[in-house]
Specification:
By secondary structure, the protein is an alpha/beta fold. It has 4 domains: 6-206, P-loop containing nucleotide triphosphate hydrolases (Rossmann fold), CATH 3.40.50; 215-260; 281-494, P-loop containing nucleotide triphosphate hydrolases (Rossmann fold, 3-Layer(aba) Sandwich); 532-604, Helix Hairpins (Orthogonal Bundle). The chain has helices at residues 44-51, 85-90, 99-108, 122-134, 152-164, 176-182, 204-235, 237-241, 245-260, 321-329, 363-368, 384-389, 407-420, 437-449, 461-467, 487-494, 510-523, 532-559, 564-567, 569-604, and strands at 6-15, 18-28, 33-37, 59-64, 70-73, 140-144, 168-172, 185-190, 193-197, 281-292, 295-306, 310-314, 336-341, 347-350, 374-377, 380-383, 425-429, 453-457, 470-476, 479-484. The chain has a 6-stranded mixed sheet with strand order 5-6-7-3-8-9, with helices on both faces. It has a 6-stranded mixed sheet with strand order 14-17-18-12-19-20, with helices on both faces. Strand 19 (470-476) and strand 20 form a beta hairpin. The longest helix is centred in the C-terminal third of the chain and has 36 residues, at 569-604. The radius of gyration is 29 Å and the shape is globular. It starts with 5 loop residues before the first strand and ends with a helix. Mean pLDDT is 82; it is low at 239-243 and 502-527.
Amino acid sequence: MAPPLLFLKDIRLTFGGTPLLEGADLSIGAGERLCLVGRNGSGKSTLLKIAAGLIESDHGERFIQPGATWRYLPQEPDLTTFASTLAYVEAGLAPGDDVYRAHYLLEALGLTGEENTKTLSGGEARRAALARVLAPEPDILMLDEPTNHLDLPAIEWLESELKSLKSALVLISHDRRFLENLSRATVWLDRGVTRRLEKGFGDFEAWRDTVLEEEERERHKLDRQIVREEHWVRYGVTARRKRNVRRMADLAALRQKRNDARGPQGGVKLEAADADLSGTLVIEAEKISLSFGDKPIVKDFSTRILRGDRVGLVGANGAGKTTLLNLLMGKLQPDQGRIKRGTNIAMTTLEQKRDSLDPTMSLADTLAGGAGDRIVVNGENRHVVSYMKDFLFSPEQARTPVGTLSGGERARLLLALALANPSNLLILDEPTNDLDLETLDLLEEMLGDYQGTLIVVSHDRDFLDRVATAIIVAEGHGVWLDYAGGYTDMVVQRGRGVDARVSEPSKASQKTRETSAARETAAAPEKRKLSFNEKRLLETLPERIDALGRDIEKLKAVLADPELYTRDRARFDKASELLTRAEDERQRSETQWLELEMLREELEA
């Protein structure tokens, strides 16, 4: 058997007095495809950083074969010290590496190489970082959440690219399908130690459950043995006359063993607060269209969503998923067509944006809305700390500012906020981001029991297969089509997965590509973040549009009087003028909101 390229042995590490790693091992052989799994906060990323040589453990051994090359992809790459994405990628090449491969990977990932690294969105930074670690084709690739911020076409391209490499892989990801398609062995990091399964992720969950069941049986045996020994201490004849010192010592040892045993980390308790049933018809769209300038976002789209439907909305980043979602929700009005919403709709939304949370507010105040320490969930008045525990927050975190929470903790907090509101229509925008696999399991189970209607935007194929009963797909040029079933069913019916939003000709000359890039750079606004005023307009324009709509209806009601013109010509002229102004202003506001929403979606992509 060939020696491993890299191995870690008996790795121990303690942060702030709490042991994070307590004897973890990791071995990576040539060409191995390994996934590293575990709960949020279990130390997966820390162990991978130790393997990459970025963190030094308190105890243990790290060995890498002389001459072996490796590359590490962090969750949050920092490109700001480089002038362009191409410079960043080329800096990761070693002497003798193929420079053309850097250009190929950037183009395949939708980048030109000329992007300013200081103005990149999260998705662009992730794509550039992927190009940097893939370009050298190292002996070992260590990838921490490589699918974060990627859309479905990019995820499927990445799968294909990784399958073609000879490099050994170590993957951390919450994307089940990604892990199932790539892994051939699984390392489970649990309570500070690692266990290895010589099978891919597809076999992991059944194996994990077997291990936990065996642990539970052993704990039960230990508890029964302690009960027997305590009974002897209290009632044994020998014990009443003269204490057996050895047996008492054994009992103390058993109690210590039980106290030292670290059981599995508690699970999230997910339960949506149900509102009264909605009508049978929830949303009906009939030949709706919406364009931004001469660019169609939605074109002649019709759909009917009934109570209890689970609809998945998929497409490449920038295809207009959020815009279509806002049309269906009523936040935006179509240029043409009609949208009808049913009766008794109680809607709750879970937005993708973590920045909707106030970073200065405490966890408890965020959940309770700053109104004391009680929260009403499903008609039950509960203490906020009790509700926090359902989502794996400890009581000590009640006064923790939201800004100090990890990405996974913020995701759980948004879930807690969304599920506390009574609803019969649940809108989820990328709900799987930053959630560990166990929490995803419970979210899927909760959605399966949910009595209302679900509309979900997601790039997670496995999640869509488990949850959705219908898929709406962006076909391009504003065309959206319905398919029955989950994501896999859609692929079978459609004959392919989700299309990339932009497809460059693969054999185009370098000169043509440079000319095209120059034109796009000249025509497109510089990539940047939304300003404070733009964010404020995104929040306030929908209210302004609604208010203008109400004014328009009132003015139309006034002008509907057939005798107004002859009875009061001045009032008729004034109402007509006000109506024209209100309609023009509403159209301008809707166009401005759509422009800002498209810009936000492009930047976040």
